[in-house]
Amino acid sequence: MPPRIALTSGEPAGIGPDVCLAAALRPLDCDLVCLADRQMLAERARTLGMKIELRPYERASRRHVPGTLAVEHHPLPVPAVAGRLDARNGPYVLRLLERACDGALGGEFAAIVTAPVHKGVINDAGIPFTGHTEFLAGRTGASRPVMMLATADLRVALATTHLPLARVSAAITVELLCEVLEILDRDLTRWWGIGRPRIAVCGLNPHAGEGGHLGDEEIRVIAPAIARMRDRGLRIAGPLPADTAFVPAVLADFDVVLAMYHDQGLPVIKHAGFQSAVNVTLGLPILRTSVDHGTALDLAGTGRADPGSMGAAIELAMRLAARAA
What is the pLDDT of residues 68-123, one digit of tens each? Predict the structure, then answer.
């Protein structure tokens, strides 16, 4: 039977339910299970004019049928209104993630795919939350999660994720970079089947520090980490100036680019493949993919949300899960 994939519906006031419902219309070679409030999904489907049969989730494996969606019901504390955040529903969002994680760890799900959540409203509910990546790492006991976005032609991973820019330099250490590089090498081999992945590493500063004149992190931290991992047999180049690392002629020589911080790498891949890029969390004991966009509250319930990234996230989860089976 095809892999069973858990789909968390995300922030109920955002476009998460919209793109989950849109995914249900697609032919998918998997057993797709959506974790959500069933009544909320039914109301959103009516608003969007989508004819989808919502059926209860059954443990017996069952191939997805377009126009249907298996739903494991998780009731909302208060009814959700499209486009209107309510902090009372913050704990509900995290319960979906906890359930998906626990099911994946226990072997019930081959992968999890997550719709976007709203960090602010979860924090407004009194729950410290910095993002999916950090939450999933804590729930699964992973010491070093690595955020990577992927399109058909480009993969960009991040050394640091949701940090203020002023804290990035101090966060980048030789030990951190070695751990991230090891995870990239291991998981690209494990999930993608790439033998000895070719990794390009960006510098932190303009022109990769220009020999120390524009910053010395490249000399003190990044180059030593690269040298250490090369000695262990990894194929790594860098530190490269970030403004030239993404030139197509350079990218052709690498399987992944490691950027030093969030907005160094993600604008490039979102420009190259917005609505088709997929967020993948490496370094976990489970397989997790996600959309590359946010909750888009202004589009929720309007029918104008593009479901392309959700479709791509599910397709990638299916392919990687099948490879690992």
Answer: 999 999 999 999 999 999 999 999 999 999 999 999 999 999 999 999 999 999 99
Spatial distance between the Cα atoms of 302 and 300, rounded to a whole number of angstroms: 6
| pLDDT score at 323 | 83
Which residues are CB-neighbours of 313 under 8 A, at least 6 positions away? Answer: 113, 278, 279, 289, 290, 291
- CATH classification code of 143-283: 3.40.718.10
Helices (H) then strands (E): counts for the chain: 13, 12
Q: What is the pLDDT of residues 265-320, one digit of tens each?
A: 999 998 887 778 899 999 999 999 999 899 999 999 999 999 999 999 999 999 99
At 162, the pLDDT band (50, 70, 90 cuts) reads confident
Total count of residues recorded for the chain: 325
Task: Report the DSSP beta bridge partners of residue 120.
Answer: none
155 sits in which H/E element: strand 155-158
Backbone angles phi, psi at 181, to 5 degrees: -65, -40
Peptide bond before 239: cis, by omega within 30 degrees of 0?
yes
Q: Alpha-carbon distance 82 to 80, whole Å?
A: 6
Radius of gyration of the chain, Cα coordinates, nearest whole angstrom: 20
Give the residue range(s) of CATH 3.40.718.10 domains in the chain.
Answer: 1-142+285-325, 143-283
- Check: pTM over 0.90? Answer yes or no: yes
* CATH class as words, domain 1-142+285-325: alpha beta
Rounded CA gap, 192 and 319, in Å? Answer: 9
In the sheet with 31-36, reading across from the earlier edge strand, the strands are: 53-56, 68-73, 31-36, 4-8, 111-114, 288-291, 278-282, 146-150, 155-158, 256-259, 198-202, 235-240
Strand partners, 113: 7, 289
pLDDT at 292: 87
